[in-house]
Amino acid sequence: MRRWRHVSRPTILTFSQGYLPGFRHGGPVRTLANLVERLGDEFDFRIITADRDSGEMRPYEGILRDQWQPVGKAQVYYASPVALRPSRLMRLLRDTPHDVMYLNSFFSPRFTIVPLGLRRAGLVPRRPVIVAPRGEFSPAALSLKAWKKNAYRRVARAVGLYSHVIWQASSDREEVDIRREFGTGAVVFIAPNLAPAAANNVWNPPIKPHGHLRIVFLSRIVPMKNLLGALSMLDRVRGEITFDVYGPREDERYWSECEVAIRRLPPNVRVRVNGPVENGHVEELLTRYDLLLLPTLGENYGHVIVEAFRSGCPVLISNRTPWRDLADKGVGWDLPLEDPDRFREALQACVDMGPDDYAAFRERVRRFGMRISADEEVVALNRTLFSYAARSSTDEAPRYAG
């Protein structure tokens, strides 16, 4: 018999490598921020995160370290490196009453593996656990540093580290990836990531002249995001093209390959390299461009794609994201990476489009983005996931059966 518990406002103890005001961790930060904004009145989100952004040596300015503090609708604990030691995390877990533990990665050592290890050893209270792998089980993601990931997956299965967990998939495709890893008996909820609720009121896009195209790439500069592929697609496109690259360089070897590709581009393609962009400025920035080019190797959601829609910026992406059939909707293209000439054809079509047609194109895209933000069904699916977990007993989810 299912054992239900009455929980008035469930406390969701959340672990994440990054959170506001950070932005270098990319999509997961925006995922959590949007989740808290949309559901923070119904659930008490308490977020344990690092006291500094990815790649930074100094803590965030203006925060209190190693203590709970309000950030929007959440309570956030910005943990110093010392506070992230297993013994300190164990005390923090014991001292923080919670109904659900919510883990936002599969592979994160400090923010997933340590909490699960403490739970498996019986050193912290057993509570229902939700694990959101955030696209880490996609074939493309698993192929990167494969030997290390394969070794951990084998050990985790052998010791039952993920027994009795509830999995969050952001799409049908991610559900398939999770079940491929943990079997058909795994408890999987499809609860897509949430877009911002507020409308983007900063919308004054520039006119796009015929024969010109302003393209933007905005993502982490790592192999998974495929900047190198984007650069290779520009080599035979006619017209005056500006290609602006934004994002943190997390893989210097990969960036060196990109620099070589930039130098080989024809003179009609002007590349400008910029740094990362804070979350609050992304949509305003995207408004300035005619096209987002992101031939990613895989996304479980793709926040920058949604932000482009909301900004009226058409997108040219791979078919390895949840955003499909974009040409039929009149808001962009999702194309196979195996056929780069189709990307070039789409790019050329954008270059050749005149100002009136492009203005209508942008308006369709923006309306599409606003419909995504207004989708209450996605909010309901997330609400159901956390409500189910909060009312479940610890051991209701079936064990991984091999």
3D architecture notes:
The protein is an alpha/beta fold and 402 residues long. It has 14 helices and 14 strands. It has helices spanning 27-39, 86-95, 109-120, 139-143, 146-159, 172-182, 227-232, 252-263, 282-287, 303-310, 326-329, 340-352, 355-373, 376-391, and strands at residues 11-15, 44-50, 68-71, 74-79, 100-103, 129-131, 165-169, 187-190, 212-218, 240-246, 269-273, 291-294, 315-318, 332-335. The longest helix is centred in the C-terminal third of the chain and has 19 residues, at 355-373.
Biggest sheet strand line-up:
3-4-2-1-5-6-7-8
Based on DSSP secondary structure assignment, what is the total number of beta strands?
14
Proportion of beta-strand residues: 15-25%
**Regions with little confidence, pLDDT below 50 for 5+ residues:** 1-6, 395-402
Determine the structural class based on helices, strands and strand pairing: alpha/beta
Report the total helices.
14
Mean pLDDT: 93
What composes the largest sheet?
A: 8 strands, mixed
What gap, in angstroms, lies between the N and C termini?
25 Å
Radius of gyration: 22 Å
- The rough form would be described as globular
- What is the H/E order? EHEEEHEHEHHEHEEHEHEHEHEHEHHH
